[in-house]
């Protein structure tokens, strides 16, 4: 810690508690009735820039600041979670592609079956449920509004 930082902390009645890998400085400010826990950001600003163990210390969910071992374990957990999310995203994309391919092949089969039918055969197939009935579409102009009246 350089002399300027030491002077700044002493001047404001603060004590440097720790520094994380991103360079954020964590201090306790004793100038208030209850010591305040503060962070001086270096670079990115916000709660996402603070590691979880340090955030817990800032929010007074833990009495002592995190150790280096705890911070390393937290980083390892975060990396493992990122890998799991990437694997999940890949698997989900593959499943969606397979479902889309299956849907397309089913629609192509139906189209091939329907292409050779006459009008009467088509009506019979619709009655039997082999061919989906066309659904009527609603337009915005078709919507009717009712006026609410109390009883």
Describe this structure in words.
With 151 residues, this protein is mainly α. The protein folds into 2 domains: 3-66, no CATH class; 70-127, no CATH class. It has 4 helices and 3 strands; from the N terminus they run αβββααα. The chain has helices spanning 3-11, 52-58, 68-115, 119-128; strands at 14-19, 25-29, 36-40. A 3-stranded antiparallel sheet has the order 1-2-3, sandwiched between helices. The longest helix has 48 residues, at 68-115. It is elongated. The model has no long low-confidence stretch (mean pLDDT 80).
What would the keywords be for this entry?
151 residues, mainly alpha, 3-stranded antiparallel beta sheet, 3 strands, elongated, ComplexI_NDUFA12, NDUFA12
Distance between the termini: 77 Å
Largest sheet: 3 strands, antiparallel
User: Which value, in Å, is the CA radius of gyration?
Assistant: 32 Å
- The helix tally amounts to 4
Shape: elongated
Overall mean pLDDT score? 80
Number of domains: 2
The topology string of helices and strands comes to HEEEHHH
* Widest sheet: strand ordering: 1-2-3
Strand content: 5-15%
Strand tally = 3
Region (Disordered): 99-151
GO biological process, one term: mitochondrial respiratory chain complex I assembly
Family: Belongs to the complex I NDUFA12 subunit family.
Pfam family, one: NDUFA12
Short summary of the structure?
By secondary structure, this protein is mainly α. Helices cover 49% and strands 11% of the residues.
């Amino acid at each position: 810690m350089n002399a300027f930082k030491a002077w700044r902390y002493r001047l404001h009645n603060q004590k440097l508690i720790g520094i994380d890998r991103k360079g954020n400085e964590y201090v306790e400010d004793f100038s208030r009735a209850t010591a305040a826990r503060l962070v001086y950001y270096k670079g990115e600003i916000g709660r996402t820039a603070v590691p979880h163990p340090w955030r817990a210390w800032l929010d007074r969910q833990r009495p002592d600041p995190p150790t280096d071992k705890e911070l390393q374990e937290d980083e390892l957990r975060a990396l493992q979670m990122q890998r799991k999310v990437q694997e999940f995203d890949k698997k989900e994309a593959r499943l969606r592609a397979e479902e889309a391919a299956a849907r397309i092949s089913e629609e192509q089969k139906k189209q091939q079956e329907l292409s050779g039918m006459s009008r009467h055969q088509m009506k019979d197939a619709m009655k039997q449920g082999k061919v989906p009935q066309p659904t009527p579409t609603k337009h915005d102009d078709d919507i009717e509004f009712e006026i609410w009246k109390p009883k």
